[in-house]
Amino acid sequence: MQIEMAAAPLREGARGSALGATAGARVVRAWLPALSLGLVLAAIAYLNPRAISYFGFNLMLNLAIPIVLATIAQMFVITGNELDLSIGPFVGFVGCVTATWLNDAPWLGVATLIGAVGLYAALGALIFLRNLPSIVVTLGMSFVWQGLAILMLPKPGGRAPDWLLSIAAFKPSLVPLPIVAAVAIATIVHFGLMRTSYGAILRGSGGNPAALARAGWSLLKTKVFLFALAGFFGVLSGMTLISITTSADANIGSGYTLLSIAGVILGGGEFVGGRVSPIGAVVGALTMALAASPLLTFMHIPPDWQVAANGAILIIVLAARALVSRREN
Amino acid sequence: MIVKLDGAEKHFGAVRALEGVDFFASAGECVGLVGHNGAGKSTLMQVLAGALAPDGGRIAVRGAIQERYSVTRAQKLGIRCVFQELSLCPNLSVAENARINHPSLRGMAWRRRAARLIAEKLDEIFPGHDIAASAIVRDLAIGRRQMVEVARAFTITQDPVDLVILDEPTSSLDTHTASQLLAFVRRFVADGKSCILISHLLGEVLKNADRIVVMRDGKVAAVDAVSAFDRDSLVAVMGAAERRAKPAVEGAGPAQESRALRVRARPTQQGDGAELVANEGEIVGLAGLSGHGQTDLLLAIFSAANRRKAGVEVSAPVALVAGDRQSDGIFPLWSISENIGIRSLEKLRNGLLISPRSEAELARVWQQRINIRTPDMGQNILSLSGGNQQKTLFARALGSDARIVLMDDPMRGVDVGTKLEVYDLLRQEARNGRTFLWYTTEIDELNNCDRVYVFRNNRIVANLDRRDMTEEKVIQSSFSDAN
Q: C-alpha B18: how far from its chain's center?
């Protein structure tokens, strides 16, 4: 926005090439997520060639799909220039519901999850109508979700519904399930957000809300819709997480908040301006999932240091991303 | 008659943007709308386009009085507006931006239809353009964005287009594309449609409009067929109808030559040798249309005070009085005293800490000198009215050790009483040797200045001495077509 405002009405402005010099940097940026994923994969292949196999991927990407889904949820919130600090605890809460009510009293479980998505939508409305900073609202909500999760499951336990376990146990031939799922998620979300006519409006609500409102679109609706989508994908994330772990723990989603934000940014998204990429976010989430644990294990980094090493990787990757963006501007 | 406005009024706080404006646009004519900054042109357009609801008056479209007028309603009735500030979404493609203004572009193959819609219109208005419908707007240079925006306003899906309001449509276009656009406007009007053309390029308006409306101080100052005007008469009507007396020249302290040089600065895009010079005890005005490089130069001078900067020479401490006080000026959580003291912390220090006593003393002195109306300077700054908040910012600058005070259009939205009080104080401070650089969009305020530099397109285009400075000259230089 500032660029437009700073550009004083200069008659010379229109001269020069049709595309600014920035287009090249944009291409680099578009390929950066794939490049970082490639680097992480190459490092894994170098350290442990046997990991690059059907079985190896199944194992390494075991926990990737919940992270991918949480990242997509975060991406929808970021599309509208907001940030969701509660997605991790929310995933934990959904996990607890999935491992208890959804198994014991399916209708109650389903109603609770639908209600949770509705609450997410209501938060979007609250943030828009009261003009509240989403960081504050979602930070507050993170304690609410965490508390609810502990109320439901004071100590680790519960059991995933059988139908969920059988979905997770499905083994497609040739390509491991996590990769199939990641491609499917990326395709569906890309189509929905980047190709549909309302998807353009949703992204526009992050790019120039004033212009959108002036064209007669309801910003309340776009915000509610984006938050509802975030809630929906958060629910999917929690359910897939439980399908893998089979039982739940109130803190199971901790760490997802940061991973999801990092995944979106690593995938080429921006915190403001409605610039997001679903495919990039999925690739970013996969990179984070691989870098978070398998890579470090293969590097023989002791578990005590893995969290710190994780942080270091995050800083390096995001710094590379920031360098590219700076060139673009 | 497509649209008719009767007695439209609009106020923004103390500012009266429109004071009973009558306006109409008929089919088959291009109405030119001219006026200086703050004359009310943009407000009038926003009212016509439904983006602002007027506080009073009636709006009728094709004879039907509109009760619940809005952008959506205007769109339905065939009235479109290209707003001055770019209203494209930079993160979307050209085609997707077209979609935003056309709710009917949906369903299957909407992307192809949107791309064709905008591409055809671009081809029609700007033949030979090289904008791809799939290009992301952020990647387009500013001129091309403006082309997209203009073309988008003329696209038709389900609603008709009968009247298009173009607010400075050529400001970012080069001569070639600007003439393409204006030729298209003539064709559009010849088809029985209507256009309102707002431009600060008077030649453009004189050449393309059928009728010209001149606005001044929120009122219509003159309306007539284009043949009734020429450049000089337009400038004369835009300027003051009645001359306002200049404040008497004060006994000008020491002679000009003997005063110490305080600031010497040259805009980065200047090109020729013109530069801004300010000496000790002078009030120097920066004039011209808003956004033509005045603020940039002030900020350059401000940063040059601490760090060497090419083309700018500053020889004393500097303070800045911000124009947009909400975002650049006040600390909303602090008290009035703290807001004043922040520029003078060095002076208020007692060991490592700020002495509350000195802070309160400084605040008390300035409360009296500048007359900040509050029972308690320890109260939150937001408890003050806008004018008194602005006085607090002046107190911050004047109470500091700064010998040079930069003012970035600080009187925006300030009531007349406050203004007069501050003017007196400024002249008094100038007599005591302080230097003021004063960017203002209000021509009356320039009468307080010893010398005025007029800016256009980020360059100094005129240097008017106090004796030669007239409103006509300032307007003439700000609007000069020579480029």
A: 16
